[in-house]
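Bumping with the actual sequence this time:
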Amino acid sequence: MPRVRETFSRYDTADYLKTEEDIAHYMEAVVEEGGDDANFIAHALGDIARARNMSQLARDTGLTREGLYKALSGDGNPSFATVLKVAHALGLQVHFEPVKKKRTAGSV
């Protein structure tokens, strides 16, 4: 019996970010999972940027395409201003809310 050769493609999150709702759910999950890991969040913005069109994003933000790739990689360290520019150009809003404190035993 001949062996069937299986081929696999590399997984890319950007391939699954088709709608605004997909992107919103993705970022909610990233913030929940990544907590205060700025690199994790920047990388997620990079996934969204690749899903949308990195060249257009570069034009919209006034940054270079190469600079965006670097800043939004897992190893990048974008400034908060860059994160805000990218979020705004992607149609996203940065949102802050109070942290919910965990109740401890004996607390009311």
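The tokens above came from a reply further down the thread. The CA atoms of residues 24 and 77 lie 22 Å apart.
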